[in-house]
Amino acid sequence: MARPGITVEIQGGARLRARLEDVDDEIVQALKKAVKEAAEAVESDTRRDVAKDTGNLERKVDTKYQDDGLTALTGWHDPEDYYAHFREVGTRRVPAQPALGPALEAERARYRGRLTEAVRQALR
User: Fold this and answer.
1) How far is residue 81's CA from residue 117's CA, in Å, rounded to a whole number?
2) Terminal CA-to-CA distance of the chain, rounded, Å?
3) What is the enclosing helix (H) or strand (E) of 71?
4) Other C-beta atoms within 10 Å of 114: how many?
5) What angle separates helix 25-49 from helix 13-20, to the nearest 10 degrees?
6) CB 44: neighbour CB atoms within 10 A?
């Protein structure tokens, strides 16, 4: 049985979409741009820090977008890359070598500022 890939999803999209219906399209586009920039930062940091034994996980980390660009799913989407999970959390015999989790935490600290700046730019 194939296992799903490992990904990270930023929650709150449904609530945000409901509120965005009343917001100017320029602001929505700015938010989509900020989501894309955040996802690209997580993807880049993950690619930089992931274990490079064969190079497969480095090559295959990817971002997929949903909800018209307001949701980004970053990680390994191919079921054949199920072992990325074991790299992230470790096993009894192999210590964790996380890359996606730390990349997400680094972006978490920047995300609010990124969104705020995008809205400010759109309002100018």
Assistant:
1) 35
2) 52
3) strand 71-75
4) 16
5) 160
6) 14
Name the helix (H) or strand (E) containing 116. helix 100-123
Which tens digit of pLDDT belongs to each residue from 22-54? 778 888 899 899 999 999 999 999 999 999 889
Query: What CA–CA distance (Å, rounded) separates 107 from 109?
Result: 5
Q: Which two tokens stand for residue 12?
A: 């709150």
Q: Under a CB-based contact definition with an 8 Å cutoff, are residues 81 and 56 in contact? A: yes
Structure tokens at 10: 């930023």
Distance from chain centroid for Cα 62: 9
With a cut of 50, which residues of the chain have pLDDT below it? 1-2
Tell me the backbone φ, ψ of residue 13, rounded to 5 degrees: -65, -40
